[in-house]
């Protein structure tokens, strides 16, 4: 009984402690727990991938090793589809969807499912990164810890952000980047109630990483001396990085569509894509796995292959990533973007040297670093994430000016050709992305039943006009729902504006039935409709009110005046929560 009593005290911490007076203290306290747990998950995945990849890499010189990525991708797909019952992919859209539409609710099994599947895919040589899977894992940890403490939707969403931030911070040893990525991409809003707990969780995740793996930046480099010529050249690099981002985005989409059209089972499709990656890896090993070793070589200026090999490696990594993720493998795009960006920056620099050999250019490692920022910013359309991530994982503060230029321009160019980022593209196309403070988000937090007006008087279709006029005298409405006398089904509406000619002609009182003058082609709403769609329907048809129907029965009316009044009140409530 003592153990159960202790458990209950922990679970009701929010209600029976100092945290009741200010939930920011509660979120900070629990955010630390979430950051630690998600940081541990990130370290476990990182070490597991390194161990598995190093074990297999020792025999990669044999021709038959191209089957390793195929087996890994197939096992990953089977694990997600058959055992865990989750779809393939990196998981970030699911996290964003849960924040937008489900109050941050995520299943407990999501805290480990993507860790295992991505370890199988990446550790066997698949071209993907561990960052998105740990975001999914950390977010699920935060969601379920919030559920454990009986927290509300707003608090749960904050802890989902804490989990994502702790995971990213841990895997990159970059607390600021983890916080910025979460706020810029996952939550989509900068608010006082979110920033502090997420920042604390980022620090907690980072400290766990440093405790278990040591405190060091991911990619060290020599200092760069940048002059005006290099800064101007970075503008061209931004265009080049944006082009690579767009190519990767569209190839990923095309490969996913092509794979989905094949009649074979998903594990076989994943194996086919993995085998293709393995074949590419036989000739260009840089395309296999995360590729972090390649990044270190490029930013240190130690990539010895020539200009054409750098170009070929860039394209090969783009295709390998598209094959891995598009065919059903599990993993993220952070690491591939870093590799592709570093190779693209290297190629761009060597092209400049070839065209203008007399110019004193900065070391090629600087352009590799800038290319990494350009790819991350372009794919995620999150320039702050690109800037802070590269600065933290490389320590390259001296390149901050061209870094800002490349990140900002790459994001802008990519947004012109691809209005939504890679992580949000599917949600936008399905109309499922709701960002805080937008009309759609505010209206989603309201329901049709909350706005229902039930004071309408229903009439039957075989009622005489004379009897109807007596009902009109008792009602303050100018519309009346018509129901079938036998079944009670909704048939249409009678509007006073449409029957005025008959009202002033007593001869018609006993000659007209309501079914003759009612409007049977009426736009209706249903109880499970989104209010944003209801409002759009009303605007499109120039309606001030619309009937609500369920199971062919009339429930009431929704008026635009009531809807907008509720919208205003809900907006005030949400704005207050974001500020405090």
How would you describe this structure to a colleague?
The chain has 580 residues and is mostly helical. The protein folds into three domains: 2-213, Clc chloride channel (Orthogonal Bundle), CATH 1.10.3080.10; 228-270 and 278-432, Clc chloride channel (Orthogonal Bundle), CATH 1.10.3080; 441-579, CBS-domain. It is built from 24 helices and six strands. The chain has helices spanning 2-11, 23-57, 67-84, 92-101, 110-123, 131-148, 153-172, 175-187, 192-213, 228-261, 266-283, 292-299, 307-326, 334-355, 364-380, 383-394, 400-417, 425-429, 439-444, 465-474, 496-503, 514-517, 531-540, 560-579; strands spanning 459-460, 479-483, 490-495, 525-526, 545-550, 553-559. It has a three-stranded mixed β-sheet with strand order 1-2-3. Strands 4-5-6 form a three-stranded mixed β-sheet. Helix 10 crosses helix 14 (334-355) and helix 12 runs parallel beside helix 14. The mean pLDDT is 83.
């Amino acid at each position: 009984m003592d153990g159960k009593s202790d458990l209950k005290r922990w679970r009701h911490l929010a209600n029976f402690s100092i945290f009741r007076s200010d939930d920011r203290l509660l979120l900070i306290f629990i955010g630390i727990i979430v950051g630690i747990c998600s940081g541990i998950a990130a370290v476990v995945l990182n070490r597991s991938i390194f161990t598995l990849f190093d074990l297999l890499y020792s025999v990669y010189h044999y021709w038959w090793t191209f089957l390793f990525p195929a087996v890994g991708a197939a096992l990953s797909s089977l694990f997600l589809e058959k055992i865990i019952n989750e779809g393939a992919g990196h998981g970030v859209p699911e996290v964003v969807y849960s924040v937008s539409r489900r109050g941050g609710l995520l299943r407990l099994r999501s805290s480990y499912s993507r860790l295992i599947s991505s370890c199988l895919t990446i550790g066997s040589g698949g071209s993907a990164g561990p960052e998105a899977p740990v975001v999914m894992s950390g977010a699920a940890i935060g969601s379920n810890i919030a559920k454990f403490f009986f927290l509300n939707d707003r608090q749960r969403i904050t802890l989902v952000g804490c989990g994502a931030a702790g995971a990213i911070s841990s895997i990159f040893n970059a607390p600021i980047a983890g916080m910025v990525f979460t706020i810029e991409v996952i939550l989509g809003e900068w608010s006082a109630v979110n920033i502090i707990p997420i920042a604390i969780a980022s620090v907690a995740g980072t400290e766990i990483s440093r405790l278990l793996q040591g405190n060091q930046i991911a990619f060290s480099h020599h200092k760069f001396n940048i002059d005006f010529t290099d800064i101007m050249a970075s503008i061209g690099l931004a265009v080049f990085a944006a082009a690579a981002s767009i190519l990767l985005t569209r190839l990923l989409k095309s490969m996913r569509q092509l794979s989905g059209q094949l009649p074979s089972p998903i594990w076989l499709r994943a194996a086919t894509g993995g085998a293709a990656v393995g074949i590419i890896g036989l000739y260009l090993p840089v395309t296999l796995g995360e590729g972090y070793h390649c990044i270190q070589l490029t930013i240190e200026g130690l990539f010895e292959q020539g200009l054409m090999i750098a170009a070929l490696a860039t394209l090969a990594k783009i295709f390998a990533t598209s094959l891995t993720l598009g065919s059903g493998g599990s993993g993220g795009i952070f690491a591939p973007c870093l590799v592709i960006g570093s190779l693209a920056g290297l190629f761009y620099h060597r092209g400049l040297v070839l065209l203008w050999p007399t110019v004193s250019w900065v070391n090629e490692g600087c352009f590799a670093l800038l290319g990494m920022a350009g790819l991350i910013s372009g794919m995620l359309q999150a320039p702050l994430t690109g800037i802070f991530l590269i600065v933290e994982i490389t320590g390259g503060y001296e390149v901050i000016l061209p870094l800002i230029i490349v990140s900002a321009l790459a994001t802008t160019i990519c947004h012109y050709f691809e209005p939504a980022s890679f992580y949000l593209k599917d949600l936008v196309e399905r109309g499922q992305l709701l960002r805080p403070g937008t009309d759609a988000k505010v209206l989603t937090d309201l329901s049709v039943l909350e706005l229902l007006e039930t004071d309408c008087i229903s009439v039957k279709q075989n009622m005489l006009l004379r009897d109807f006029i007596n009902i009109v005298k008792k009602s303050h409405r100018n519309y009346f729902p018509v129901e079938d006398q036998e079944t009670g089904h909704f048939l249409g509406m009678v509007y006073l504006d449409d029957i005025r000619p008959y009202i002033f002609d007593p001869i018609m009182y006993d000659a007209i039935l309501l079914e003759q003058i009612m409007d049977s082609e009426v736009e209706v709403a249903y109880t499970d409709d989104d209010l944003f769609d209801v409002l759009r329907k009303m605007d499109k048809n120039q309606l001030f009110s619309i009937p609500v129907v369920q199971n062919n029965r009339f429930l009431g009316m929704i008026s635009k005046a009531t809807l907008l009044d509720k919208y205003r009140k809900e907006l005030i409530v949400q704005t207050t929560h974001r500020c405090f």
